[in-house]
Amino acid sequence: MNFISLKDIDSLSKWVSEALEIKKNPLKKKKLGQDKTLGLLFFNPSLRTRLSTQKAALNLGMNVIVMNFTNEGWSLEFEDGAVMNQGATEHIKEAAEVISQYCDAIAIRAFAELIDREKDNSEVVISGFLKYATVPIINMESATGHPLQALADAITIEEFKSNQRPKVVLTWAPHPKALPQAVPNSFVEMMQLQEADFVSTHPKGYELNPAVTKDSKIEYNQNKAFENADFIYAKNWSNYNEYGKIKNSDTNWTVTSEKMKLTNNAKFMHCLPVRRNVIVADEVIDSNNSIVINQANNRTYSAQLVIQKILQDGK
Ligand code: AN0
Ligand code: CP
């Protein structure tokens, strides 16, 4: 069993209730992972993913080893048949097989490079590990998705919703750096599995990959989208059509308390890290309606559920 995308979840509602059970008693399966090792490989920075996934594995009694490829570790070649006379020192073929001997599962973070859309869509790093590793692979944010985040978001919405069909709004907001589409992609895919009135709002031209959004609703007028919302989920992403470009930095898209007044007293969500007073005004993220800290807490239980399923699968 691998956990690569939302497609690996057979029933979201079942997974959410299982995660909420884990949350009630996180140490219940402390023996399940005894003498097993989880490897965490980072090709990009992290705070929550690194610590919550590690915490989840520890709750299951596992050992955890972490490797940063950002400034430690050899630079890897992913192309089969490459003549390796350039920068890369080691081929994914050896690297993945070797790491598989040390670990019972491998979790990987490898962001989109935002240069070549086809290359990012082909998920070079995750695909390389899937091809050559001999143990289960977990996605800790790849080029096109962040399913552990989306699962934590689903758990959080379940905990905070006050009606069976909440209005959930994904809103784009400005950011000074070009960011991947992974988080909004997985959020949209997760919302498509939920009973909800789901709307995305973003400037024209900021459409995500249509293969992801399919027929999900888009409202280009942010104020209109916010009307009667129960949840506002803010996130920046760079342009998908003009791939990786910043085409808009309009600060009118920042989530302010003025805009939150249009909602049905909505909860404010963001995956974090967030740029205050760029994505969201202090007054919103510091308000009682902000559930970003609860959301980050649920990262532990989404990871723990996934690791638990992988351990049980291997028995
Ligand atoms: C990353 C992103 O937008 O994909 C990670 C979010 C979890 N964010 C930044 O790089 C700021
Ligand atoms: N939300 C999230 O994945 O945070 P980190 O990038 O800090 O891991």
The end-to-end span amounts to 12 Å
**Number of helical regions:** 12
Report strand %: 5-15%
| Total beta-strand segments | 11
SSE map:
Elements: H1 12-24, E1 37-42, H2 48-59, E2 63-68, E3 76-77, E4 90-91, H3 92-102, E5 105-109, H4 117-121, H5 124-132, E6 137-139, H6 147-160, E7 167-172, H7 182-191, E8 197-201, H8 210-213, E9 217-218, H9 222-226, E10 231-235, H10 257-260, E11 267-269, H11 282-285, H12 292-313
Parallel strand pairs: 1-2, 1-5, 3-4, 5-6, 7-8, 7-10, 8-9, 10-11
Helix pairs in contact: 1-6, 1-12, 2-12, 3-5, 6-7, 6-12
The structure holds N-acetyl-L-norvaline (AN0) and phosphoric acid mono(formamide)ester (CP).
Can you describe this structure?
This protein has helices at 12-24, 48-59, 92-102, 117-121, 124-132, 147-160, 182-191, 210-213, 222-226, 257-260, 282-285, 292-313, and strands at residues 37-42, 63-68, 76-77, 90-91, 105-109, 137-139, 167-172, 197-201, 217-218, 231-235, 267-269. It has twelve helices and eleven strands. The longest helix has 22 residues, at 292-313. It has a five-stranded parallel β-sheet with strand order 9-8-7-10-11. Phosphoric acid mono(formamide)ester (CP) is lined by residues 46-49, 141, 149, 271-273.
